[in-house]
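User: I'm writing a short report section on ligand binding and want a predicted complex to refer to. Could you take this sequence and 3,4-dihydroxyphenylalanine and write out the structure as tokens? A short remark afterwards would be nice.
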Amino acid sequence: MQDSDLEKIKNEANEEINNAGNQAELLFVRKKYLDNDGILGQFFKSLSQLPKERRGRTGMIANEVKKNLAAALEKKSEILAEVAVVSASDDFFDPTLPGICPKIGHLHPFTLLEREIAEIFGTMGFEIMESREIETEWYNFDALNVPKDHPARDAFDTLFLEDGSCLRPHTSPGQVRYMENHQPPLRIIVPGRCFRRDAVDASHMPNFYQVEGLMVDEDVSVANFKAVIDEFFKRFFNRSEGGAAEHIDNIRLRPSFFPFTEPSFEVDLRCVNCAGKGCSACKGTGWMEVMGAGMVHPCVLKNSGVDPDLWRGFAFGVGLDRLAMIKYKINDIRLFYGGDQRFLNQF
Ligand code: DAH
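Assistant: Sure. The structure tokens for the complex follow:
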């Protein structure tokens, strides 16, 4: 047993440590040299056979070699661990790493609100009807008592197509289409996309959404309308039982004009921001204008094949975009159409 043997062991071990390509190979080298029955282990055992005067010195050198090899093994292990992390990011597949969750997105706030509105009216016996986005002049205007030369047509900023049809500027033609095929009693809502030649600003888009409503029966009155709409807004803005505004009027009706209703009114909602005290959201009035409505004009019933001497009804139209802006306190309509996920993810 020579000191030079130790030198040889050290050199060979270092070379094998250098060549180890992964942790398993490195472990193999560690065992081969440092285990009790490994090469260095055997060397320590054989120390007892050395003459006493050499034993101490050789033992010291052997200990030194052992320490160096342990350090070299440790260092190499760290290097290999770093390499493993880097290569995991390209072709190395580590099945124990947590997976990457795919983004599945969610429904647009308008879709969510449309469903909520449908749910509320559904509990009051209203059916949902989907009408078409491209309409003829007849359904869009004439049948709704807006003849060709009527100034009310100007208010709609309609986008006409080459064949004379148009992109519907409101959901009201859905009323006529439904009544053509269904006799009263009837209750429907018609949610849908509408179009107008409007310039884009914080409260206008050329593409927007409305929800139309129609109830026709033998004895329908404005009182029925007020009850249904009051209940709708109470639920939509969570003002039902126990809410702050439970005991005060939720809506008010103001006389207005629409060719397809007589009488006609605008529906104002008690400001959701200040509950009627007056604030910047309601321009100090305590009320927010939210809806056009009225008692269905006899001409509209007649044009739709319903006998106005037997049936009466109310109708209304509400902007979904506007309701969404009020409910969520959004001051720019463009946010709903921008596709910015930071905005959309909040709903
Ligand atoms: N269609 C009207 C608009 O877009 C809203 C409207 C008002 C609808 C009165 C109605 C109604 O059904 O009765 O401005």
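A remark for your report: The CA atoms of residues 160 and 166 lie 4 Å apart. The radius of gyration is 40 Å.
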